C-alpha cells in the first residue's frame, strides 16, 4: 500500500477500522498495518561538465543526496532537454511488483522532468531515468538564487501509481538545485560556479556569440570593482602586493587574489565555459635588451650630467642630490651628477659645459645599481632603487579591485579572441590583434622600459616608451583555461 510520505524514517501505523451490523448490534474491529513510504534519496544531473562547489573545492556525483542538501550544481546547454537520474527508495520491499512513474515539477522553464516509462519493481532502491518535459530556454540564464537573482530550481517530487498521484520527500525546501544554462558545450574539463555566476548573469537572455563575449567583457571593464566571488568577496589583481602569487583560476577564486596569469585564465575560462574559443598570450618587450616594462604611470624628469671636461660645474640647489661637489672630477665625461629628490623637480642651475638631460640615466646608472628611483614594489614589497633619480613612480592605472597594483613586470598576460586583444587584469581593450593595435595598447599601459647591458648581461638603466614605435610583442601562448 502507498500513501503520501509524511515521515519516511519513522512512519506511523495506519489504524484500519471495520464496522458491520448484526441486526441492531454494531460490530467493530480495529487493526494496525504498516504504510509503505517511498523517498527520493539521490539526484544525478547529466550535466556536460561537472561544476566545482566552492568552499568544498570539488564536485559531487551525484549532485544531490538526502544527506547532502543544497550542494547541487549543474550546467546545461541552451535549448537542450535536461536529463536526471533519481534513486527512489522504498521503506521496505514490496510483496509484488508495481509500476511507478516519477515526476519532478518546477516552475522554471525546462526544469520539470518525468520518467518516460513506468518502472516495474518491488525492490527497496530503484534508479529512474528522467527527461525534461520541455526544452530549456534558447538563451543564457541562471536558476541559482544568489544575491537576489532568479530562484534556484526547487522540485516537488511526485509518483504516479494506479492513476493516483502522490507527493513524496524531499520537499522543495530540501532540494534546491543551482542550474546554469550555457551558450554552447563547454571547452573546459570542469566549471567554476563563480565563473558561471558572473557570465550567465552578465549575458542573461543572449544567444549570439559576439554579443555574449561583449556582455561578459563589460564586467571586466572599468569601474574595476564588479568582479566578485559568488559569496560576494571581491577578486583582486595583485591585491596583496609583493605577497601575491597564484597563476590559475582556482588560485584566484580560492584566495580572492592572484596575478595576471590567473586573471588571463579566468577570462579565458569565462569564454570557454560557454564553448567560445580564445587563447592566452604573454606580452613581453620586443627587444631582448629590454628587461622590464614600467607600467603607467611614471614621471621622467631631468638631471644634470658633467661636461666634456669631466668636471661638475653646476650648482646644486633646494633638495636636489649631488654626487659630486662643484669643481670635483667625475669618473667620466657627461657623467650623471645632480638629480631631483622627492619634489620630482630639478632645481639646480646648469653652469659651464654641463648638460641638462631628461628621461634616461644612460649606462652610468649601473654603477649605482638598478633602478635610479625609489619605491616599494606593490606598496609592501622590499624597497628598491635610490631616493634620488630622474624617474618617479606615480599612482597609475588601477587593476581589478586594486587601485594601485605593482608598477613593473617582465611579462604580462592577455587574452586574444576574434583577432582582438583583451587585458582582463586592467580591464583594457579590446585592441586589434595587429602591430598597430599592440602599439596602441602599449601606449596605454607602458611608460618605459629597463635596459640590459650587452656586455655584462645586467640591467643598467631605463628609457621612456616611444609612442610611435611598437616595442612589445606577443610571446608564448596557452589555450588551456584554468
* Fraction of residues in β-strands: 35-45%
Unreliable residue runs: 1-6, 11-16, 362-374, 455-459
Give me the Rg, rounded: 34 Å
The largest sheet is: 9 strands, antiparallel
Question: Which structural class should the secondary elements be placed in?
Answer: mainly beta
What is the number of helices? 5
Instruction: Indicate the multimeric state.
Output: single chain
Topology:
Blueprint: E1 13-22, E2 25-34, E3 38-45, E4 51-52, E5 64-65, E6 72-77, E7 83-90, E8 98-105, E9 113-115, E10 119-121, E11 125-132, E12 141-143, E13 153-154, E14 156-161, E15 164-167, E16 176-182, E17 191-192, H1 193-202, H2 209-220, E18 236-237, H3 249-255, E19 257-258, H4 260-272, E20 279-285, E21 290-295, E22 298-300, E23 302-305, E24 321-322, E25 336-339, E26 355-358, E27 374-376, E28 383-385, E29 391-393, E30 408-409, E31 412-417, E32 420-423, E33 428-432, H5 435-445, E34 446-452, E35 459-464, E36 472-478
